Amino acid sequence: MNTEPDLARIAAAVGDPRRIQMLVLLMEGRALTAKELALGAGIEPATATSHLKRLLDDGLVACTSQGRHKYFRLAGEQVAELIETLMRVAPQRKAQARAGATEPIRQARYCYDHLAGSLGTGLLAMMLKKHWLVPQAGADAKMLEVSARGVKSLSALGIDIEEAQSRRRQFACRCLDWSQRQDHLGGALGAVLAERFRALHWIERKKHSRVVQITPAGAGELQRIGLQLERPQ
């Protein structure tokens, strides 16, 4: 039997403002309960349960039971990419912020499990400029691979390249950033970099948020390896 993607069903699933808000909340990368998602979306828990059932049926979220609670998370990296893409093409709306201020979420944040915002785009630009990363030969223009120079430099930072390559996902790819309109680093390597920077305490994640804060020690170390940091205002 011939089959084709049911785009209309997925469009309807993410087209509901309450369901898309739940998916955006899950872009933090944490597993959340139905009650937490209901609170974040501004709806009653019973209403949230029906929306979560639809998202489960359509394969957009996954559910894990632990004790008396059920925890929901995005079904995978492809779903995160879908939400990030929607953020890029959606019309912009005014946000309340000080004039001339750099919004924290635009400066540094998580895009699912890798770094985005000006921090993420700056990291990728630096790695391309230093030829740590190069276009993957004969592949899609988005796909990247690590050069010999990159292996040496990233290993010096404590990045396990072989472990990243063994993960069952794309290794390294360009991911267009919705706020910067430039590429940041996605894929397994992007996730490993974010994990390593947190382990080194170069970055800290704000509680219940995708926003990332660069620590004073991290700012010094990131500048040492060649990253030009954008100053918050």
Along the chain, the helix and strand elements come as HHHHEEHHEEHEEHHEEHEEH
Largest pleated sheet: 2 strands, antiparallel
Please give the count of helices.
11
Give me the side-by-side strand order of the main sheet. 1-2
Strand content bin: 15-25%
Q: Kindly state the mean pLDDT as a whole number?
A: 88
Q: In one word, what is the shape?
A: globular
The structural domain count equals 2
Whole-number radius of gyration?
Answer: 19 Å
Structural class: alpha+beta
InterPro entries: ArsR-like_HTH, HTH_ArsR_DNA-bd_dom, HTH_Metal-responsive_Reg, WH-like_DNA-bd_sf, WH_DNA-bd_sf
GO molecular function: cadmium ion sensor activity; DNA binding; DNA-binding transcription factor activity; lead ion binding
Organism: Rhodoferax sediminis
Protein name: Transcriptional regulator
